[in-house]
Each structure stands twice: as C-alpha cells, then as structure tokens.
Amino acid sequence: MCESQMLEREGRDQHNIASDEGSDAMSENPTMLALLEQLGDQNADVQQQAAISLIEQNKFALPLVTRALRSSSNAQVRYLCAWILGQIRDTRSVPALIEALSDEDERVQDWAAKALGELGDSRAVVALEALLRRHPRPETRLHAVLALGWIGGAATTPALITALADEESEVQLAAAEFLAQRGDKHALSVLMHLAKLPSEWLRGRAIHALAQLADEQAFDTLYAALNDPAEWVRHHAALGLGMLKARRACADLMYMLLYDPSPQVRRAAAIALGEIGEFVAIETLVSALADPNDHVREAVDAALLKLGYGVD
C-alpha cells in the first residue's frame, strides 16, 4: 500500500468512526461514560469488568474508547483503552494506536503495540519498527517484535532481521522464531547460539525453531541437544533430526526410544526414526511396541508403517 493510499485510508477510518450509524450517539450515553470512568478505578476488579463491558459493546464503544486513548490524562485509562481496542479488532482504531506508541507511559506503548499486532494491519509496520529501534526497555521492544511477527508479510522481515542483533535474548529469540516460521535462514546462527542459553524455556524454543528451519547446518546443535537435561529440548531436537533425515543420529534416537525416561521424548524419537527411514531401526521399533505409553506405541506403529513393516 503506497503512502497516499495509507493516508486516504486513515482519513476514511477517522470519518467512519465518527459517522458510524448510531455508534457515536450510543458512545455518549451515561452507561458507556460510566464504564469509561470505571477504567480509572483503583479496584482491579472494577477496572477489568468495565473493560470487558466496553469490549462487549464492540463498534459502539469505538469512538469513546479511541478518544480516551488519545486524550485521557490517566495512563491507566489509556493503556486499558489500548487493550480494549485490540480486543474489539476494528482497523479504524489503527491511527490512534499508532499514536499511542509514542505515549509517555510504557504500559500504553506496550498494549498499543500488542493491539496493533492483533489487528494485523500493515500500516503499523513503520511505527513498530521505529519503536523497536529506539526504545530502551527490553519488554517494549519485545512487544514491538511480537506485533511485527503477528502482522506478517514481507514488509516486516527487515525489522525482524534487525532484531536478531538486539542485546536482549528474549527479543532475539522472538524475532528468530518468526523468521524460522517463514523459512528465513537469517535466523540460523542466532538460534544455534540461543540453544545454549542457561534458560530451559529459551533453549526449548530455540531448538524448536531450528527444527522448523530443517537446515543441515543445524545438525550439530540439534544432535548435542539430545543430551539436554530438559525433556522438551530433547523432544524438539529429536523431531528436528527427523526432519533433517539425519541418518547419523539413528543410533542415538534408537537408544532414546528405548531408554529415555520421558514418554514425550520416546514418542519424538519414534517419529524421527520413521522420518529418517533407515531399516536398521526396525528391530528397535518392534521392541518399543511394548512401551507402556499409548502415544509412544502409536508413534512406533506409524514409524514401522513408513518403513514398510506391517503391524497387526
């Protein structure tokens, strides 16, 4: 979409918010105004219930909530308005949410970024990229990356590649995951590095993303992860080696199938052996038909069928 089209659409959005039949009048009724006032209440339950009630009003709440996001002096009201607009998911709120990325309150910036990601509107890409570049707070940069990833499209790829060099591991990983989903090999080296982090949660996500890339350069990292103390890291590593059809890993996967204490890992090993397709694995797979876990046995059955070994 060119700049003139974007400007025209923004103008049309603002006109439509104001002129939507019946919505503007309804937004000014006492009940709606009372709900807006309750967003600033000190009681979290009152805030939440008011926000939910405004979300339920859908497009009828749009003019009121959009104005409050732009003009309220209460930061709590503004960030709740950003959240409400993300839940209503009407693209006419995009210009106001883009403005809110420059709000003085970080919570408003975070929720505006999240809402723009949920709306999936490409008009927000430039502003989100600027937020990612300039903001000193890692959590806000992470929200910007997530929003860009949710919006998708080729226009977001340069910003995600830039985020791979972020100083915060969570920001790097989020960008790398989105790129891996697109098959973009820019994420490869970063993911191999992140797969060695102390955090079990981050390692598991990095190995999962590496598996999605299915690149031979990731073999050593995936192979090493078969010995990770975390079961979900081993699980994703086994599946990744199966996607690579890594014959070199067959012996290790056969051992895992028989002896790993985690049924999820044993199941992944069976799936991987079926994908690799080496007949040498048949005897081990047949032995694994005695596994106590139903899901493991189902995966073993499927692997044996792929190898041409009929199971009664």
Any chance you could write out the topology, listing elements then pairs?
Blueprint: H1 3-19, H2 23-27, H3 30-38, H4 44-56, H5 62-71, H6 75-88, H7 94-100, H8 106-119, H9 125-134, H10 138-151, H11 157-163, H12 169-181, H13 188-194, H14 200-213, H15 219-224, H16 231-243, H17 250-259, H18 263-276, H19 282-287, H20 294-306
Helix pairs in contact: 3-4, 4-6, 5-6, 5-7, 6-8, 7-8, 8-10, 9-10, 10-12, 11-12, 12-13, 12-14, 13-14, 14-16, 16-18, 17-18, 18-20
Q: What's the pLDDT, averaged over the residues?
A: 91
Span between N and C termini?
58 Å
Strands, count: 0
CATH architecture of the domain at 1-116: Alpha Horseshoe
According to CATH, what is the topology of the domain at 1-116? Leucine-rich Repeat Variant
